[in-house]
């Protein structure tokens, strides 16, 4: 069985949970407190980068870096069409775009309210959101079930589903009210997002509420 070592967030490991559920692969969450994390950092060979998420494979290997793990699982279970270089590029650059969003979001979120750069960081985050949603809208054929109109599910769908229902359409996210109007403008994505919800409904409706 796979094990996911992470903090008590959906965060960078949610795309892996969606993939495990989709392919009916058993997994268990090892939810770490900060002291647990500090202790785990001292255990040789487990957290190579001193960060989580890390997954332990059924064979006992510890894998780190969330996006590398997602690609690894995608390759292993047929959800990463690498033989088509252009499709793989579109998938990778979409996932990198979400990573950039997360960096903008947390820079803004972690900056104290009275910091002189707070409103500039908010503008940068919202402006990047608009850019990201425009790119997604352009890449996604309106009627298609899977991202880019791929015939089968890919890691982009797992990453996008995790992202949209954690960072955007998540009322428990502290900046939901700010991001929702930006999302609402990008109508071309709404049907795809509804399809993702249906696909992962069991998890979304049983996982509880967390800010991200
Ligand atoms: N590039 C890494 C980033 C991982 C990361 O920043 N992890 C955070 C939690 S989301 C962490 O481990 N923080 C605790 C620490 O660095 O002590 C990945 O994608 O896995």
From TrEMBL:
Pfam families: GST_N. Residues 84-212 form the GST C-terminal domain. PROSITE patterns: GST_CTER, GST_NTER. One of its GO terms (biological process) is glutathione metabolic process. One of its GO terms (molecular function) is glutathione transferase activity. Residues 1-81 form the GST N-terminal domain. PANTHER family: GLUTATHIONE S-TRANSFERASE. This is Glutathione S-transferase. It comes from Halteria grandinella. The lineage of its organism: Eukaryota, Sar, Alveolata, Ciliophora, Intramacronucleata.
């Amino acid at each position: 069985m796979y094990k996911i070592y992470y903090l008590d967030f959906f965060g960078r490991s949610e795309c892996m949970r969606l993939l495990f559920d989709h392919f009916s692969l058993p997994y268990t969450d090892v939810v770490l407190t900060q002291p647990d994390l500090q202790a785990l950092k001292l255990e040789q060979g487990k957290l190579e980068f001193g960060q989580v998420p890390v997954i332990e494979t059924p064979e006992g290997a510890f894998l780190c870096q969330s996006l590398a793990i997602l690609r690894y699982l995608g390759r292993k279970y047929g959800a990463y069409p690498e033989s088509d270089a252009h499709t793989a590029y579109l998938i990778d650059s979409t996932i990198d775009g979400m990573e950039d969003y997360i960096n903008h979001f947390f820079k803004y979120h972690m900056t104290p309210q009275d910091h002189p750069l707070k409103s500039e960081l908010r503008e940068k985050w919202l402006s990047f959101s608009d850019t990201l949603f425009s790119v997604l809208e352009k890449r996604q054929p309106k009627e298609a079930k899977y991202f880019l109109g791929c015939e089968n599910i890919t890691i982009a769908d797992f990453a996008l589903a995790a992202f949209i229902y954690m960072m955007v359409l998540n009322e428990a996210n502290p900046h939901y009210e700010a991001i929702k109007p930006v999302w609402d403008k990008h109508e071309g994505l709404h049907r795809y997002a509804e399809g993702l919800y249906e696909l992962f409904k069991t998890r979304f409706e049983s996982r509880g509420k967390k800010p991200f």
